[in-house]
Design brief:
The protein contains eight helices and seven strands. By secondary structure, it is an alpha/beta fold.
Amino acid sequence: MNSTRELGLSDYWNKRYGQGTESEETTHEWFRTFEKLRPFLEKELPSASSEPRILHLGCGDSTLPADLDNLRYRNQISVDFSDVVIEQMQSKYPDLEWRVDDIRKLGLESSTIDIAIDKGTLDAMLYGSQWDPPEDVQENVRKYVDEVTRVLKPMGRWLYITYRQPHFVRQQIIREGVWDLVVERLEDDPGTFEYFAYILTKHDAKE
């Protein structure tokens, strides 16, 4: 099987997270560390005092939920389809909410999330031609985007962090009449890899 395609399978991640060859302190921070993302998040997240419900989509073993908890964001839920990594994270951060779930069919009620965060999860679904993805890629992405749309409250936001260029991403995530989309190029050190933040705001149901 193509190794890129394997990234969209829970068995691959269960095996990777369950290898046990790395230090317990080692994490996989795809697409920038918290400190690199902090200026962007401080700008885009509602104040912690407003207690926004934050959903981490495909959380893996990132420390981002714990980092935000340290900033007093107490109302968070982190989901991943790898039961291995969820068990690990529950053990490390028992005071936070972790759940084994499939982002293509989330076990969450509709219109209950203020902020959804994706830091590399959608990218794990994508393989093959970026101009003309295989049918299973298109179907999985469609289900994922539809689920994010469903669980977000009106005016809720989806923050998607990726290295993928806007002309490839727009065709995958745009939904006419559903989202307002803003793309931001994330600042970094000169000569380093370029990253983008896609900020999608769900339309108010009254519109």
